[in-house]
């Protein structure tokens, strides 16, 4: 297990519901539903789904509520898997600890593989893609959700935070995770087509996270693993700098606009 994987496992063991709670604060612009509800629309024909990096099972539970008969998930974090197992929709799901690079499932076992905001954090991504192709039946679907950056206050937060993230002492620095190729259409096509997948279909969800300045600060704070490396002094300084930098964006009603983009890539195994 890499240092990045060890960090992610420890982080999510301590905060097993953090990712789904954060996602649940937002609503997809022009739709009004959660990201899990909108993402699940990409795999409406699924009968047997494997979620790579399933976390606390929020996406699998949404698919279960739609009647998908076979659900499975793999994740590094036992704490998240325990949370997933407590969801009523996942009472019969096959949830296993492990790495997506070494899937404990049979060849061709699934017609759909999904990975929401997880593939972009994985190392040895060629092996992840090869394993996804192995467990998919011919013609099976792979659907991926990828972070596409922030807008409004969320974009400002990152501009203010980056200099602080860059000077965190080595012993507290959060290990870098992921492969940049997983964050672009061109990079994914390079990875996926060599493993037997078709070129991806690509579209974008814009998720509204606007709210009071305090609410938006908390959402920004919770969106970046690098915050775990800051000490209290730097965290307080960042909050002050963020408040000043976004002051002019606050509406007369007291709302601070903030949104994030999620890129959605869907492909099929040839």
Helix content: 25-40%
- Low-pLDDT stretches are none
For the record, the CATH architecture stands as: 3-Layer(aba) Sandwich
What's the CATH H-level superfamily name? Vaccinia Virus protein VP39
Mean pLDDT: 97
CATH-assigned fold name: Rossmann fold
Summarize the structure.
The protein is of the alpha/beta class.
Polypeptide structure, described:
The protein is α/β, with parallel strands linked by helices. The chain has a single domain, classed as 3-Layer(aba) Sandwich (Rossmann fold). The chain has ten helices and eight strands. It has an eight-stranded mixed beta sheet, sandwiched between helices. Helix 4 (58-65) links the parallel strand 2 and strand 3 (70-75). Helix 7 (153-166) packs antiparallel against helix 10 (232-246).
